[in-house]
Amino acid sequence: MKKIGVTTTVPSEILIAAGYKIVDLNNLFITSKDYKKYIDIAEKDGFPKSLCAWIKGIYGACISNNIKEIIGVIEGDCSNTKVLTTILEKKGIKVYPFKYPHGRKLIDIKKSLDNLMCLFDVSYEQVEKIRKELNEIRGFARNLDLLTYKEMKTSGFENHLYQVSLSDFNMDHIQFKENLREKINEINLRESRKYKIRLGYIGVPPMTGDIYEFVNKYDAEIIYNEVQREFAFPRANLNEDIYHQYLDYTYPYDFDFRIEEIKKQVKERKLDAIIHYTQAFCYRALEDGLLKDELDIPILSIEGDKENTLDARTKLRIEAFLDMLVDKI
Fold this sequence. Notes:
By secondary structure, the chain is of the alpha/beta class. Helix content is 50%, strand content 15%.
C-alpha cells in the first residue's frame, strides 16, 4: 500500500478511499526513541535554531523515513508549513496542497475538499463510505473521552494518546479500531479514580508527554485535551456529510469559533483550571491573552521547545499553580 505523509489532520477519508496508508509526520517524529535526530537533520540542512521544533521534526521524519508524497496544509495550520512544502518539493517529494479556508464558509470548504477528491481521483460516494467506517472508530474515541471526564477511568495521557492517534489511525484504521475497542473494554473494568483538581489542556499536543503523569502527583488530572479531541472529530456523528464535518472542525479556523467549543467543554467537564501549552517560536502563543480574556477560569501558560520532558522551571510553575488551586477549591 502506498504511504502518504501529513503535516496535520487532513481529510483521511479521501486518502484511504484512494488506497493510501496515512503517516502523520508529527506522530512519527515525537514517538521516535531518538526524536532529536530529526531536528538535527533539519538544522544540518539549514533550518534555523529559532524555528519551531515540530516543523524541523516533521522535515527530518519525512526525509529519514523515505516518504515520497505528502499533504501540506498551507492554510489553517502552522504558518511555516507553506515554506516547508516548498523545501520538500525541492527534495523531490510530491506535495499535494490543502486548505482550510480562512472564512470558514461551506462553499469554500466544499471547493477545497472536492479539489482534493479530484487530485486523488475518488468520488464523493467512495469518500462517504469510508467516512462511515472512520466515524465508527471516532465513536469509540467519544466513549473513551466520556470514560475520562464522567467516570474518571481513563487517564489524561490515554485520553491524549488515543485521540491524537486519530490523525492517521496509527497507519491502519482497521487494526486501530480493534485496538481501541480492546482498550475501552479494559478501561471499563477499572475502578473510578479520584482527583481533587480537574484540569483542561488547551493548545497543540505537547512535546512534553510527561505533563500528564506530573500533574497526578499533585492530586490533579487532565480530563480535557482540546486539540487532540478535535483530531478525533467528536461531533462527526452529528454532521450530515464530509463537507459539514470539516466545517465543524475547530482547530484550523478563527479563534471565536474555537473558543465557543472550549467554553462548552469547561462547563460540561466542570474544569477547575486550564494549562495552555504553546510551542517556542509559534504564532499561537499570541492567543494566550485572548484565552485569558474570554475564559473565567485560572489559566497557566507554559511553553515547550526541543525537550520531550518538562524542565525544572516548568515543573516548579505547574506545582505552584496546582498548590494555589488546592487552596481555592
